[in-house]
C-alpha cells in the first residue's frame, strides 16, 4: 500500500479559534500558541472550538508562527488539512506505480508549464510529455459524500478550463481529487458552494478530461492511499 510518513514530532492540542485564513490559536497544555493553517479552505465543520488537533513544531526558523496545524480529529477520525500534501502523495503514487491508469508514463514533471500558467504535473515518455494532471485536496465529507471545493474557487475553475483546452490540443488530461480522510464513500462537486466549478468539471469530463477521486486513511504517523471512490457528476 502506498503511503507518506508524517512528521514524527507532532504535538496534540485543542483548537481555540481561527484568526484568519492562515493562522489559528491552539491550546497546548494550557499554553495558547499561534499555528499556521496550511490551507485556504474554510473547513468550518473541522476547525471548531474544542477540536483535537496535531501540530508540527518548528525551531530556529524565522517565521510568524512556530507551529503548523496538520491534522484535525473529527467524528472519531483524523483529517489531514495540508493542501500541499496531496501533490506530494500523487508524486509518490506515480513513482511507486500505484495508480495503474498512469503506469504507461516514465516521465514526471511538477509545475508543468502550459500556456501562460502551470499545471500540477506533466506525465510522459520518450522525452515527450503527453498527459497533464491537476491534483485537488478534499477535506469536506458529509454523510459519506466528499465534496470540493468548500469555498468558491475561481482558480480551480480556471484549471479545469485549461485541462479542457489541453485535451482539445491532443493531450491526455486528468483531475485527481485526493480525499484526505477515510470516510469519503463517493465524490461529487460542491455545487451549492461553487456552481461554476461544478459546471466546469462536467464540461471538462464531457471534453474527455478524466476525473478520479482517491480516498486516504490518516493517522499520526502516515497518510495511506486506500483507493478509488466513485465520482458522481
From TrEMBL:
Coiled-coil annotated spans: none
SfsA N-terminal OB domain residues: 16-81
Alphabetical list of Pfam families matching this protein: SfsA (PF03749), SfsA_N (PF17746)
Matches recorded under InterPro entries: SfsA (IPR005224), SfsA_C (IPR040452), SfsA_N (IPR041465)
GO molecular function: DNA binding
Domain of life: Bacteria
Sugar fermentation stimulation protein C-terminal domain span: 85-221
PANTHER family named among the record's database cross-references: SUGAR FERMENTATION STIMULATION PROTEIN A
HAMAP family per the UniProt record, alphabetical: SfsA
Family assignment from sequence similarity: Belongs to the SfsA family.
Protein name: Sugar fermentation stimulation protein homolog
Organism for this UniProt entry: Desulfoscipio gibsoniae DSM 7213
Amino acid at each position: 500500500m502506498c503511503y507518506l510518513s508524517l512528521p514524527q514530532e507532532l504535538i496534540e492540542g485543542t483548537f481555540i479559534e481561527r484568526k484568519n485564513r492562515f493562522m489559528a490559536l491552539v491550546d497546548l497544555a494550557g499554553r495558547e500558541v499561534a499555528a499556521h493553517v496550511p490551507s485556504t479552505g474554510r473547513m468550518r465543520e473541522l476547525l471548531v472550538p474544542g477540536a483535537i488537533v496535531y501540530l508540527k513544531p518548528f525551531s530556529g526558523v524565522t517565521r510568524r508562527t512556530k507551529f503548523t496545524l496538520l491534522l484535525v480529529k473529527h467524528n472519531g477520525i483524523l483529517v489531514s488539512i495540508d493542501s500541499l500534501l496531496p501533490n506530494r502523495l500523487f508524486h509518490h503514487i506515480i513513482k511507486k506505480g500505484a495508480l495503474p491508469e498512469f503506469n504507461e508514463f516514465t516521465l514526471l514533471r511538477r509545475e508543468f508549464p502550459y500556456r501562460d500558467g502551470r499545471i500540477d504535473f506533466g506525465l510522459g515518455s520518450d522525452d515527450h510529455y503527453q498527459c497533464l494532471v491537476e491534483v485537488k485536496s478534499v477535506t469536506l465529507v458529509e454523510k459519506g459524500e466528499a465534496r470540493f471545493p468548500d469555498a468558491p474557487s475561481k482558480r480551480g475553475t480556471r484549471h479545469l478550463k485549461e485541462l479542457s483546452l489541453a485535451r482539445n490540443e491532443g493531450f491526455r488530461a486528468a483531475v485527481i481529487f485526493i480525499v484526505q480522510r477515510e470516510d469519503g464513500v463517493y465524490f461529487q462537486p460542491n455545487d451549492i458552494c461553487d456552481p461554476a466549478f461544478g459546471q466546469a468539471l462536467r464540461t471538462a469530463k464531457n471534453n474527455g478530461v478524466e476525473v478520479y477521486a482517491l480516498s486516504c486513511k490518516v493517522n499520526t504517523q502516515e497518510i495511506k492511499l486506500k483507493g478509488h471512490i466513485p465520482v458522481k457528476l
